[in-house]
Design a protein that fits this description.
7 strands, Acyl_CoA_acyltransferase, acyltransferase activity, transferring groups other than amino-acyl groups, transferase, ribonucleoprotein, ribosomal protein, single chain, alpha+beta
Length: about 170
Amino acid sequence: MIDIRPATIADAEVLALLGRVTYSESHGHFIDNNDDLMAYMETAFSVSKTKQDITDPKNRFYISYADDLPVGYAKLVLNSGYEDMHSENSCQLERIYILKDFIPLKIGQQFLTFLEAEAKALEFNTIWLSVYNKNERAIRFYQKNDFKDVGLSIFIVNGKAYENMVFSKDL
């Protein structure tokens, strides 16, 4: 059974670990240098950074569970816009990651549906995200879910730039 719950400060260690593992699984092979990958994960997915992010009122974290085992997480950033988007009432789906062994359970689809409902309940009319332009599986997933390509952004990993596509969806 799949369950999705809001995360709290008590979940910081679980979120940090899920962040490190899922980022490495989904993006590790795209990063040119393993030292850059490790340096990025040390910063982005430390327990202290995760605690700081959880306590920021503009962020909402959620954990997905399969039979009570944490298998994925997501982060919504409230009232976050993108320069080339015309919505003034949007939120960003900054992260949605599932452990690779659990991807075949279609947890990502359930999670995305849940997050879109959450964004609507919070009265946002647009949700947007960025995805690495070589991550074809993720790009197909968002296109299948009616996200539209609205631009480009640059994501920095330890000083190296990676071009991302920006997608948005009207809610």
